[in-house]
Every structure is written in C-alpha cells, then in structure tokens.
What does this fold into?
Amino acid sequence: MQDDELQPHELEALKALPSVIDPGSLLEERTVRTLQARGLVHGRRTRFATSWWGWAAAAVAAGVIFVTGFSLGRSSETRPATGIAAETTSRINKETKRGDGGRVVHPNSTREVALTNTTDDSTLHSNTRYVVWF
Amino acid sequence: MQLEAAPSDRQLAEALRLSGDERAFLTLYRRHTPRLYALVLRLAGASQADAEDIVQETWIRATESLERFRWDAAFSTWLAAIGVNVTRDLQRRRGRRPEDTWVDGVDAPLPEAKHHERIDLERAIATLPDGARTVLVLHDIEGWPHESIAERLAISIGTSKSQLHRARRALRVWLAFEPVERRVGTKQ
It folds into this structure.
C-alpha cells in the first residue's frame, strides 16, 4: 500500500468528524446587525416604512387621527361656552336676589367686574352679558 | 394535505439581492451556516473566535457579491470558497503568512509529537501548519479535488498534493496510526 493512501480506518475516522456545527444564535444576531448597518439587509420595520403601501397606510392613519381630533376639538369648543354662560347667570341671579354685592371673576382673566347691588333685571342681564363676552 | 416546498437557495438569494429581505437572509443563513462554521473552524485551527469572525465576514462578502454569482455551482460551494478566502486573508493579517508553506521543498517544520502520544483527531488537525491543514481539510474532509484546491488557493496542483502528503503523515504520527519509528515531519 502506498504511504500516501488513506487506509480504511483513517478514512472512517475522517468521515466520522461532524460536518455541521451549530455556532449559536449570538453569531446570527451579530451577523444580521452588521448586514443591517451596511444596508445589505433591511429589518421588517424598515421594509414597512420604505414600501409604498406602508406610506399609504401611514397617510390614512394620520388622516383619521386628524379628522377625529378636529371633530372632538370643535364639539368641546362650543359646549363649555354655553355651560359657562348658564352657570354664571345662575350664580349672579342668586347673589343679586340675596341683596349683597358680589363680584364676578372672568373665567379666563384676572380682571374682576363689580356688580351693583340692584335687583334691576336689565342691569343684571347687561352685566351678565359683559361677564360672558368679556 | 400538500406540504409547501421550501424556497430554493436561488429564490432566497434573489429576494435578498433585490430587496434586502431579512427573512430570506435568515433562511439562507440557517440553512448553510452550520456547515460553513464546521469548515472554517477546522481551517482556523479550532479557534472559535476566529471561526465566528470568518463566518460573519463570509456572509458579508457573499451578500455584497450576490449579483456576480452566476449559479454555475451550488450556493454552498460558492459560500465555502468565500470562507476559504476569508480564512486566508485573516491568516495573512495575523502575520502567519500561510503562503510560505506552499512552496515545495520549503516546508515549515511540523510540530513535534511525543512518543506514543495519542490525541483527538480534531486537535491533531488544529496543530498542523496552516497550509497543510487547509489542504487536508478541503481534500480529505470536504472532498475537494486537487484542481479546485489549487485554483482556490492560487497554488500548483503539485503543491496541493505535497501539502496533503505532509499533513497525512503528521496526522498518522499524532494519532498513532503508524509505528513511531516511521515518524516523519521532523527535519532530517
């Protein structure tokens, strides 16, 4: 037998060596991160953002949020003004009927408006309007 | 019930090349890395850290050059060839200069084996000089012909054969496959 030829038991020993070895998941994560950093592989989030349907979905979602927010803003803008007017009128009525002088503070201001000690309805309504619209 | 066929290497590689599809890459990676890792771990002399660096660099180079792959060989063969190149580059950078051992007649001395020492085959392969180890791994374990080894390593076929001869004889000594009196690998 030639010196350089592999003998059966040598061949067997070499063939018995494992042909696959698992390097572990850390290497996979590291490799993917490196490829992403070089722009060779795109993650799922990036793919969504760069695809046309991703942009379209984002635009529709933004539109829905805007319209909803606008509608809510409109309804809440009118409701409190009416409420404030009714509340203020009721309070002034009570104070005036009690006969003592009162002061009304404008809800959005530090300015104060002195009410006269009167039972005249026209003055009362005029002051009330002033408080509401001031 | 019909099972869905797994996508081919080519389909996955196309998805990766055209859109950088991460899922396609992961499928390719998981399919081929265990075999690639086993190869480069042996080529790197059983250094796990080096083998991991080589695997990562191999995938980077493969992904970058997918456009140039003509599919005239199996994807795994192409990937292994890149792995061999990366290993040689790493050995050059480390200053080990494996090419010094390629020249016929200027062989680097083989490590001494103690009399009657019987060691594990993997460890024995790891102790071989880079050139002899590379040829032994590619020829006797991976089944590459000398022509392919010579082409890939840019050496002559004769050099490939002589390196294999040295590697086998050294292994026989370490593994006690032959009598100690016939030990070779030490300078005459």
Remarks:
- Strands of chain A lie at 103-105, 112-114.
- The longest helix of chain A spans residues 52-98.
- Chain A has one domain: 27-133.
- Residues 19 and 47 of chain A are 35 Å apart (CA to CA).
